Amino acid sequence: TGKYFAPRIVALLQREMPDVQVALRVGNREEIVEAMERAELDLCIMGRPPRTFLTEAMPLFDHPHIIIANQDHPLARDPMVPREALLRERFVMREAGSGTRILATRFLDEIGHDQVAGITEMSSNETIKQAVIHGLGIAMISAHTVADELASGRLVRLRVQGLPIYRKWYLLPQPRADKAAAVTAVERWILDHADVIEPSLDLS
Question: What is the pTM of this model?
Answer without folding.
Answer: 0.85
